Amino acid sequence: MSEVFATADLIDAHGESIVTCETQFRQFGGRTAFHGPIATIKCHEDNAMVKEQLNQPGEGWVLVVDGGGSLRTALMGDLIAQAAFDNGWAGVVINGAVRDVAALAKLDLGIKALGSTPRKSAKTGAGHLDGAVSFGNVVFTPESWLYSDEDGIVVSDEKLDLP
């Protein structure tokens, strides 16, 4: 979604009713500020579910992927990220690694991850879809709202009025 906002302003306006993710993610996508309702995946070093989900219509949603913090294999690369963009996802937050960093930076898609690695992941389909995932002292619940910019990530139980 393209509305202008700043997470710092959201914190100032909404205070303790929203939570801040303490994990320090890196920006990889060409869109540095993004927001939308949350869809979730929990998987470890296997991106089959990520690929499947991002090949579905995104309608402005944000996919939050809990990869257990693994930097050993990438859970998203340029082809999957291009599919996310083509299918209308607002962004992807990965508690893990990505690859094809130069290509990701050219996409108008919000992408945050812990880091990058050239190693691709397994593709067995192991993982869980649409359950609460937790990292950075935040529980990411499907259909909650995520707001992300250069300052970080905040999560609200409901859509916020943007200041």
Descriptive notes:
- Strand 9 and strand 10 form a beta hairpin.
- The chain is globular and about 40 Å long.
- It has helices at 7-14, 48-54, 78-86, 101-104, and strands at 19-20, 26-27, 34-42, 62-66, 74-76, 91-98, 110-116, 128-129, 133-135, 138-140, 145-149, 152-156.
- The strands form two sheets. Strands 1, 2, 3, 4, 5, 6, 7, 8, 11 and 12 form a ten-stranded mixed β-sheet that branches. Strands 9-10 form a two-stranded antiparallel ribbon.
- It has 163 residues and is α/β, with parallel strands linked by helices.
- The chain is 17% helix and 33% strand.
- It is an enzyme of class 4 (lyase).
- It holds the Pfam family RraA-like.
The end-to-end span amounts to 15 Å
Order of helices and strands: HEEEHEEHEHEEEEEE
Secondary structure class reads alpha/beta
User: What is the number of beta strands?
Assistant: 12
- Summarize the biggest pleated sheet: 10 strands, mixed
Number of helices: 4
What proportion of the residues is helical, as a percent range? 10-25%
Organism: Nocardiopsis rhodophaea
Protein name: 4-hydroxy-4-methyl-2-oxoglutarate aldolase
Keywords: Lyase, Metal-binding
Family: Belongs to the class II aldolase/RraA-like family.
